[in-house]
Fold:
Amino acid sequence: MTEPLKDRAVQRTRDLAILGATGSIGCSTLDVVSRHPDEYRVHALTAHTSADELESLCVRHNPRYAVLSGLPEDTALRRRLRGAGCPTELLFGAAGLLQAVEECDAVMAAIVGAAGLAPTLHAAGLGKQVLLANKEALVMAGPVFMRKARDAGAVLLPIDSEHNAVFQCLPTDASGRAKVSEVRRILLTASGGPFRTAPLEKLGAVTPDEACAHPNWSMGRKISVDSATMMNKGLEVIEARWLFDVEPSRIEVVIHPQSIIHSLVDYVDGSVIAQLSNPDMRVPIAHALAYPRRMESGAKPLDLAAIGQLSFEPPDLQRFPCLGLAYAALRAGGTAPAILNAANEVAVDAFLRGRLGYTAIAQVIEEVLGRLEGGEADTLERVLEADRSARACAAQCVENRTERAA
Ligand code: NAD
Ligand code: MG
Structure:
């Protein structure tokens, strides 16, 4: 492992662009920022197609820019915003996402899925302070992303609760430098999701709403399904590999159903440091926004006596085959994680639309990984090409299954 983050100077956040502002992380970020109006200005807000939600956020937060990346130019909408007395310049299309990150100090990268890669990478390349919620960017293009961030002097602050916890638990010396050579393992915790104890034979019939009913966290639908399958934890293992520059064999997963310990760092002397909080994303968001200071997040204080018990168990790879697939893709290296991610996005989308059974999600991903030959992931073009091929292949696998079932 090398020193990834803590040895970097971090500037205080002033103008903030929020990519994916209408989502779960976007809304939690705006909640935290609203508690500190003297310290943070909302520079840009983006959404894909939810125009009404974005409009009300603009009226409330008055950003310099707002972007609807999935819609064509709409002058009526622009006029409506002006009519509401809002000074915001409204942009349309994916190019607006790049513009949104250009003039700010910090970027909250909270678009879901592979769509987050291009603007997040752009922000990193401009040397911004990047608050990284979008894990798919590092899963797809970890080495390219980290190289670009390093070369541009960007500061990466993890928002994913596990990585934020690891970041908080990493050792530093008297000068604030991380000493990761003294770390034995990183332990990522996982709740086990809504089907941790469900009978295996029942999993084939679970519905999207059941899969999205997470016991502890309230999140967007895609990541909720990923949490149920534990692909989310697999993606997080890959994310940790690049963020902290640690070999896969030194990243372990433990199931902790209460979601109070968000991850742990195991030192060579046997000491283990953990970060705890109630499961509320405003905690890591406030930590990253204020870093290296601390500020109030709105989260409830932790009451350990009321919680009573914290328990742990190993993950069962028969119940959670996606976790095994993610480790395998990470070990295979190159474009395999990008292929895994793309196949997962297609399969989860098909599941959420009622076109694929829950247990077929892992089967489709395995089939795509088996069918496609991986290659080097040393340029963005190669990564995007792998992403495209994997999407086409996964769509075909879903189609074949739908035909067979008909
Ligand atoms: P969400 O579905 O609630 O919100 C997604 C946001 O991205 C919305 O604003 C949406 O308009 C925008 N978006 C969707 N598709 C887009 C596209 N093709 N192009 C541009 N914008 C698009 O998602 P979320 O739960 O807030 O998660 C966001 C990211 O943060 C994901 O990568 C997720 O893995 C990560 N994350 C989320 C949580 C959580 O608690 N929600 C925790 C850790 C990490
Ligand atoms: Mg997480």
Summary: Residues 333-406 form a domain with the Rna Polymerase Sigma Factor; Chain: A fold (CATH 1.10.1740.10). The chain is about 45% helix and 15% strand. The radius of gyration is 21 Å. The first helix runs from residue 24 to 34.
